[in-house]
Write a structure and sequence with these properties.
mainly alpha, 2 strands, 55% helix, globular
Length: 105
C-alpha cells in the first residue's frame, strides 16, 4: 500500500508522461499484478490506486529495454543471478500484455 501511495504522489508531482516503473518480482503473475496496479488501478481494490488509471510505462528489470539501459557490471552483480532461476519469458509475456492493454505512454 505504501508503494502505491508513493507512485501516486510521484506521478502527481512529475506527471505520468515522465514516469517509468521498474519491477523486480520473481514470477510473471506477481509482476503482472503490480504492473496492472500502476497502469489500470489496483485490481484488489485495497490500495490508494483503486480506480486510478495512471497508464504508466512499466517494465520488469529483466526485460531487454531495461537491461540495455543499466551498466553491464551492475546488472551482472545485482540481477543476473535472479535471471538464472526465474522464467524470464513468462515475465516478459505478462508485462507486454499489460503494457498493450493499459499503458498510455
Amino acid at each position: 500500500m505504501e508503494n502505491q501511495k508513493r507512485v501516486k504522489e510521484l506521478t502527481e508531482k512529475h506527471g505520468a508522461e515522465n514516469m517509468v516503473v521498474v519491477l523486480g518480482a520473481a514470477e510473471g503473475e506477481a509482476s503482472g499484478l503490480a504492473a496492472e496496479t500502476v497502469t489500470n488501478g489496483d485490481p484488489t481494490y485495497a490500495g490508494p490506486l483503486t480506480g486510478v488509471q495512471l497508464g504508466l510505462r512499466v517494465y520488469h528489470v529483466c526485460e531487454p529495454e531495461i537491461k540495455e539501459e543499466v551498466d553491464e557490471a551492475i546488472y551482472d552483480e545485482q540481477v543476473s543471478m535472479m535471471e538464472m532461476v526465474i522464467d524470464v519469458d513468462d515475465i516478459i509475456s505478462e508485462m507486454t500484455s499489460i503494457r498493450e492493454q493499459y499503458c498510455k505512454f
